[in-house]
Amino acid sequence: MRIRSPMSIVTMQLGQCGNQIGFEVFDALFSDSHCPQGLCSKRENEAYQASCKERFFIPIARAVLVDMEPKVINQTVTKAAQSGRWKYGRHSCFCQKQGSGNNWAYGYSVHGPRHKESIMNLIQKEVEKCDSLSGFFIIMSMAGGTGSGLGAFITQHLQEQYSNSLKMNHIIWPYGTDALLVHENDAVHKICAKLMDIKHISFNDINQVLAHQLGSVFQPTYSLEGSCHYRRNPLGDLMEHLVPHPEFKMLGVRNIPQLSENSLAYSSFTWAGLLKHLRQMLICNAKMEEGIDWQVRPPSSGLPTLGKMSLNKELRFNTSIANLVILRGKDVHSADVGGFKDPALYTSWLEPVNAFSVWKTQRAFSKYEKSAALVSNSQFLVKPLDMIVGKAWNMFASKAYIHQYTKFGIEEEDFLDSFTLLEQVVASYCNL
Question: CA 58, CA 126: separation in Å to the nearest integer?
Fold first, then answer.
């Protein structure tokens, strides 16, 4: 039987945030795939490296870098080249001399139409280097002007030009497509402080934690239980498992363990312990294992779920639509994931057999002998999203900053349409 090569992913790095995180993601992927201590056979390690290379490198990173100012892109490209291990393509960058002024409307309505042709041409050239394109991984911030505004414009036109390819947007929620993979800066900051024991936290520290979590999701895993072949299209498989309905696209990542080098030297882990903590992190909507609320329990059979509470009461139990657990490391096939198949964890309209998936590989990730990642489509974002919408409504009602949008063609009706859409998302997740 002929094994088809892995499908490639083109990464879009948009704005300062997108480019800085993108660098850390590629660096983490390369470092992990070339780690000599993968705790597996030489043949398996070589297959793992080849799968990662085809997906993300050639060995030049499969990426397009976009920013409206040259400083960050120049720093990013130079930093990759100086590593001596991997680099960005010389002709895969687009930058200008004038930024977006932290204005979404300027990025979307001015820079977008003005530079659309040049940026889409760069993307097309990168796509043409792929034997088989899985889709696009778009890294951007929700704040600022280029990442958010131009990022929204580019995502929209990717959908039009590459309608048959998957698009996943990784968005950074401020300091909080086909699917949106969301990280909140506040949560990552706490991981740096409490788990990584970093005293003076920089954006570089935050970006490295993000890169580690993304790498734990996108690095190769076996296609089937007992298979020796790596998954060909993880982006497509992830979407298929986690986005069963187009109204529910919000995905969150939890990763365990994440420790400083000093703490790791004195730590040992079992699959039972890791999975027990990861399951409770899901149930109580904890972003890290420290501070887990062990009092939160799934609703008993026949009782209404707490997820159907009104938003003026605290959402304690985190109801899921779908979950994907990714296990990497020693004795991975002995890990029991039965706790994630409990019907009480999920909404009533999806059977657990369709709502839960597990991916595995014996190849260890990064410095951890055993590690687990959870990608979840759940109510995790209901509270922060509802708070953001409430604050935005108040600002809109007082006409705060509205002129910064209307002068670039964004009408008040556009704001109202956006509020309606986001309130529907909140209501849909709240009523799981």
Answer: 11
Integer Cα distance of 78 and 88 in angstroms: 9
Half-sphere exposure of 44 (CA within 13 A, CB side): 15
Closest CA to 69 of 93, 100, 97: 97
- Cα–Cα distances (Å) from 28 to 33, 86, 232, 320, in that order, read 8, 11, 20, 29
- Taking the C-alpha atoms of residue 332 and residue 44, their distance in angstroms, rounded to an integer, is 14
Whether residue 241 contacts residue 322, with contact meaning beta carbons closer than 8 Å, is answered with: yes
Task: Give the ranges where 203-342 is alpha helix by DSSP (H).
Answer: 203-218, 234-242, 261-264, 271-284
Q: Say if strands 320-329 and 166-173 run parallel, antiparallel, or are unpaired.
A: unpaired
Phi-psi sector, 204: left (phi>0), alpha (psi -120 to 50), beta = alpha
* Distance separating alpha carbons of residues 294 and 277, to the nearest angstrom: 9
196/209 Cα distance (integer angstroms): 9
Given strand 320-329, what is the order of strands in its sheet?
93-95, 63-67, 8-14, 133-141, 166-173, 179-184, 250-256, 370-378, 320-329, 356-361
Total-model pTM: 0.89
Element (H, E) at 13: strand 8-14
Distance, in Å, from the CA atom of 85 to the CA atom of 267, rounded to the nearest integer, reads 30
Instruction: Round to whole Å and give the CA distance between 56 and 341.
Output: 32
- How many helices and strands, by DSSP H and E, does the chain display? 15, 10
Residue 144 φ/ψ, nearest 5 degrees: 75, -165
Q: What is the pLDDT of residues 205-263, one digit of tens each?
A: 999 999 999 999 999 998 776 667 888 888 999 999 999 888 899 999 999 999 988 88
Task: Say if residues 375 and 321 touch (Cβ distance below 8 Å).
Answer: no
Tokens describing residue 57: 């490198």
Which tens digits make up the pLDDT trace of 145-180? 788 899 999 999 999 999 999 999 998 765 447 788
* Gap between the Cα atoms of 216 and 374, Å rounded: 9
Alpha carbons 258 and 214: distance in angstroms, whole number: 13
Q: 375-427 pLDDT, tens per residue? A: 999 999 999 899 989 999 999 999 998 998 999 999 999 999 999 999 999 99
Question: According to DSSP H, which parts of 266-409 are helical?
Answer: 271-284, 352-355, 382-397, 402-406
Query: Structure tokens of 413?
Result: 């009706």
